[in-house]
């Protein structure tokens, strides 16, 4: 299978990253109607009472009415910055047998050239959330920009100030010195259903106020390196320059911010992703009031619960997030969570997959108590943890799926030596010296450390044998490889 790439619909391609704003926390609290800015109360958005926008009775929604009423709330963003570059050729690609060539020696002198700052430009979209010039867009549009220019639909242009951005959720707020501007109306992404019509307005490739439409393809998508955002997936045509633009529902309400596309070419191929507006607004409020955002953390690494792992832990259906590792001194450790526990719910909200957990935790407040429904030792219980503050380390990581095996286990192990325990930073476990059969097929390798079987820590071969005698057809091996831990299901037969 050919590799695939997630492209942030790059509005600011080539812009060098700046120091930015620190840290970050958001929550799913209600959407604010006002914020405090410069000791003034500033209204956000435009949510007047009254009948919702009418849609066409036949032939789909009336997109023209939406564009006519709210098109002027969408802006074009042009950014300028600098990136380090050198004209030196890449000599690392020269085959070793040619490196004694006089041509190689001639060109090698250019390798010592110092990189120079090269001007770069990028473009994107945004939309107005307050009549006095507050604009919402993507963090990747403005991050590291030396200057930001905003152009309205009436062709007025303003130099914008970046109030702040949050790279974890890809949200940024900029402000222009203008008043009496039209503002968008906020919708509720929870009311969206797959198959609903949606509409995007933006500046793909610099074509101002381009209108495209499609349907909601799926909700709560988790994307690589963006595990805090439950993306709305659509088939709306989104291309570089659409980043930061609004996604409207058929009532003319903004339900998301167009942020990324899934593509092999860099252009639209039918898969686009938008940040839900309730996530964006909560982040924006933090940025407007303090210039930064803080995200909460639990301090665990998790993986998907496959059917084999569910069988191993006595869980009837494969659901929840399996705890593979608990950071020392973390909120999870203080609450009593341990490797082998399965988190089934957060504040009574079900955790259907491991990808749900970082979204739920990361969008809460540090210091907030959270009730976790946990499956442990073949029974469910509730524990309370007080969330910490995310500092840039891994919050929750999905360590991947599983591999089916055959009959038997196929492991040769021995107790760890004190020096090996010290190097691996563990206090128990067995060193895997040889792997055959099902364990090998499941991905276990020589040099791995076996820490637990079916959630029970092991220090000796006898402990492993005792656990296996009582095990079912599938056992879950907690394996440490380097600094990473993962549960590996192995079918015994």
Q: How does this model look, in words?
A:
The chain is an alpha+beta fold and 493 residues long. The protein folds into three domains: 5-47 and 62-79 and 122-290, Thrombin, subunit H, CATH 2.40.10.120; 296-389, Pdz3 Domain; 411-491, PDZ domain (Pdz3 Domain, Roll). Helix content is 15%, strand content 37%. It contains ten helices and 29 strands. The protein has a six-stranded antiparallel β-barrel. A hairpin with a 2-residue loop joins strand 2 (34-37) and strand 3. The chain starts with a strand and ends with a strand. Mean pLDDT is 81; it is low at 1-30 and 392-407.
Descriptive tags:
15% helix; 493 residues; six-stranded antiparallel barrel; Pdz3 Domain; disordered N terminus; 3 domains; 10 helices; alpha+beta; Thrombin, subunit H; single chain; 29 strands; elongated
Write the layout of secondary structure elements.
Blueprint (H helix, E strand, L loop, with lengths): L4 E4 L25 E4 L2 E4 L19 H8 L3 E12 L16 H7 L7 E13 L5 E4 L1 H4 L4 E5 L5 E10 L4 E5 L21 E6 L7 E14 L2 E9 L11 E3 L5 E10 L8 E5 H14 L5 E2 L2 E5 L2 H6 L8 E6 L4 H5 L6 E5 L2 E2 L5 H7 L6 E8 L2 E8 L1 E2 L21 E5 L2 H7 L5 E6 L1 H5 L7 E5 L2 E2 L3 H10 L3 E8 L2 E8 L2
Antiparallel strand pairs: 1-14, 2-3, 4-5, 4-7, 5-6, 6-9, 7-8, 8-9, 10-11, 10-13, 11-12, 12-15, 13-14, 14-15, 16-23, 17-18, 18-19, 19-20, 19-21, 21-22, 24-25, 25-26, 26-27, 26-28, 28-29
GO molecular function: serine-type endopeptidase activity
Catalytic activity: Acts on substrates that are at least partially unfolded. The cleavage site P1 residue is normally between a pair of hydrophobic residues, such as Val-|-Val
Protein name: Probable periplasmic serine endoprotease DegP-like
């Amino acid at each position: 299978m050919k590799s695939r790439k997630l492209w942030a619909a790059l509005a600011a391609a080539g812009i060098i990253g700046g120091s930015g704003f620190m840290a970050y926390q958001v929550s799913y609290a209600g959407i604010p109607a006002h914020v405090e800015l410069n000791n003034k109360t500033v209204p956000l958005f435009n949510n007047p009472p009254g009948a919702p926008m009418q849609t066409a009775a036949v032939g789909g929604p009336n997109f023209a009415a939406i564009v006519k009423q709210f098109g002027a709330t969408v802006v074009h963003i042009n950014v300028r910055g600098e990136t380090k570059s050198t004209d030196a050729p890449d000599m690392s690609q020269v085959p070793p047998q040619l490196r004694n060539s006089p041509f190689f020696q001639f060109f090698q002198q250019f390798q010592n050239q110092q990189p120079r700052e090269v001007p770069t430009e990028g473009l994107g979209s945004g939309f107005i959330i307050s009549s006095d010039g507050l604009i919402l867009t993507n963090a990747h549009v403005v991050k590291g920009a030396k200057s930001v220019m905003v152009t309205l639909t009436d062709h007025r242009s303003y130099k914008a100030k970046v109030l702040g951005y949050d790279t974890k959720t890809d949200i940024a707020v900029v402000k222009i010195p203008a008043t009496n501007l039209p503002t968008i109306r906020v919708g509720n992404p929870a009311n969206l259903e797959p198959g609903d019509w949606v509409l995007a307005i933006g500046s793909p490739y610099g074509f101002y106020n381009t209108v495209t439409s499609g349907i909601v393809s799926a909700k709560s998508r988790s994307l690589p390196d963006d595990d805090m955002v439950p993306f709305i997936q659509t088939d709306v045509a989104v291309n570089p320059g659409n980043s930061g633009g609004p996604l409207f529902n058929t009532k003319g309400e903004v339900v998301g911010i167009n942020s990324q596309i899934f593509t092999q070419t860099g252009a639209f191929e039918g898969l686009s992703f938008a940040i839900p507006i309730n996530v964006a607004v909560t982040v924006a409020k933090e940025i407007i009031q303090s210039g930064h955002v803080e995200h909460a953390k639990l301090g665990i690494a998790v993986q998907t619960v496959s059917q084999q792992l569910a069988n191993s832990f006595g869980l009837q259906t494969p659901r929840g997030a399996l705890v593979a590792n608990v950071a020392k001194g973390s909120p999870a450790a203080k609450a009593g969570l341990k490797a082998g526990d399965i988190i089934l719910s957060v504040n009574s909200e079900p955790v259907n997959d491991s990808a749900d957990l970082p979204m739920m935790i990361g969008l809460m407040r540090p210091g907030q108590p959270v009730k976790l429904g946990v499956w442990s030792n073949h029974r469910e219980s509730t524990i309370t943890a007080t969330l910490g503050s995310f500092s840039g380390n891994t919050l929750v990581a999905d360590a991947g799926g599983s591999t089916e095996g055959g009959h038997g286990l196929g492991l040769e192990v021995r107790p760890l030596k004190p020096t090996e325990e010290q190097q691996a930073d563990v206090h128990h476990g067995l060193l895997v010296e040889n792997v055959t059969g099902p364990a090998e097929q499941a991905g276990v390798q020589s040099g791995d450390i076996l820490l637990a079987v079916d959630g029970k820590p092991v220090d000796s071969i006898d402990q492993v044998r005792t656990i296996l005698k009582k095990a079912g057809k599938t056992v879950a091996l907690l394996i440490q490889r380097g600094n990473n831990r993962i549960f590996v299901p192995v079918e015994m037969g």
